[in-house]
From TrEMBL:
Gene3D superfamilies with a match to the protein in the record: Dimeric alpha+beta barrel
Name listed for the protein in its UniProt record: YCII-related domain-containing protein
């Protein structure tokens, strides 16, 4: 079955400034989403704050720039099995989002190669 990544983007500044009760509710809604879709859910994780991320470009390593207010950055993902992109979009539409959006991308699943004979 085809796989799709549902890449969750959120405005970290707005998230951090939001009330704790709102953040707690959204986290619980994400757990409920994962439970509801456990039959198609392959994986899902929240990224740590972008304050701890680095960029690697052309062999150079540098701290990632801090997100600007109003700019949504990747903050987590769900990897799902879906019949097609329309099915994946219907699943993504159910992700609770108050501070951003979800990007749906097809995944090319690479099968491991057999080790060469020695």
């Amino acid at each position: 079955m085809p796989q799709f990544v549902l890449l969750v983007h959120e405005d970290e500044v707005a998230w951090s400034a939001g009330e704790q009760a709102v953040r707690d509710r959204i986290v619980e809604q994400h757990y409920a989403f994962a439970e509801k879709h456990r039959d198609v859910l392959v994986a899902g994780n929240e990224f740590q704050s972008t304050a701890v991320s680095v960029d690697v470009r052309g062999g150079e390593v540098a701290p990632s720039p801090a997100p600007a207010p109003g700019v949504a950055v990747p903050c987590g993902y769900f990897l799902v099995n879906a019949d097609d992109i329309d099915h994946a979009v219907r699943i993504a539409e159910q992700i609770p989002m108050e501070f951003g959006y979800v990007q749906v991308r097809p995944v090319q699943v690479w099968e491991p190669r057999e080790a060469p004979a020695v």
